[in-house]
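Table 4 source record.
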Amino acid sequence: MSSRTVAIKTLVEQQRTGKPIDLVFEKMLTKHPLSSQDRQLAMAISLGVIRRRNEIDFVISSFSSTPLDKIRIEVLAGLRVGVMQLLFMDRIPPSAAVNETIIGVGKQPPWLKGFMNGVLREISRHLTKAHNILTTLSKQKGTNHPGWLVDQYIKQFGKETAFAICEANNELPTLTLRINPRHCSMEAFIQALQAQDIIFRPGIFNPLAVTILSPVKVEDLPGFKEGWFYIQDEAAQLIALFFGGSAGGLFLDACAGLGGKTILLDQTLDDQAAIHAVEPHKERQTLFHENLARCTSRDVPLFSESLADYAGHCQTQYDGILIDSPCSGLGVIRRHPDIRWNRTMKDLNQFSTTQKNLLHQAAPLVREGGFMVYVTCSTSVIENEQVIETFLGRHPEFSLDQPEYDTSLQPFFTSGYLQTLPHQGLDGFFAARLRKKTSV
């Protein structure tokens, strides 16, 4: 099976199911393995279509007499794959882009293949016209984001920042690591990278962060098996600020997932502190244990149940609780570009309800004088500030408690919250610390 066929099938399956495109792609490769080079091409085409879908559809509409919503899903995916190559992948000859894509769409009625062939060949003969057509696309459509999301950005951040966020979302993501000081110093890791001619840059805000600029698999980086590092954007690493200065005590990662934030807690808290974790999903539990073992983290008891179930019988109170909440993921669109097309306003409100419930469930587990840290990888006020405001209105025993931070981080702290945005070179993250008052 060709790279174009895999790209078309991936786009069709992703649109039909709404599942993350990286998972769809990997599942497709399990059925239809490709060489390394063809795999890279299929992924580049698939993600390119997702990142440029508005532009691609605008060009197709301009050359097709049939409205997009009347075109069979497989044929539309094929047209998108063809236009992606013709307009945005200069190294692919137009003839190959057209011919291989038509073959790649597979069995279709002759008249549909003829329609597809006609549209793509017409575009290939008039590439200058196609590029000029793109210049007439409205600025909002040109962001390659759904209109409702751009409207939300504008309402929340203003036009200039909204368009800057969209532009950053369309960039290729960076690979950022956090060095594990238990196993490796930054100096030793840099020397190992240099020895393998791997291009990198040190972190902007965190002395333990490093961004890899060379195209290299994570597993091939020096010290991967030995636990020298783990993958974590600098925005996520800033969560350590909310736990800094805690001496000893008992802490809970209430939404542990794969253990990334648990490892961060392990490396942030002093050796006298104890950490517990809650994660109900079996697959994540397995990866949680594997990740903590690779990084040789301290022993962390993992409770295999939901936070609601755990809170229902827990007799322990914690000095600090981390709630890395399920969310829309709007802050990590550059890493998962299909999120923009998979989310709706209804989803944001549903996530908000879940997030409010998690805070409410965790509140009784916090001792007096202790705190909760609420985190999302979202840029939406619906999932962030509004969730905190609702919680504080429901729980007057808590108050917003801003952590100490370096002046270089001032742009990320507003009204007591941490909010990083994609156009600042980081993932979009939000965090708030809620301190439980002490009885008089």
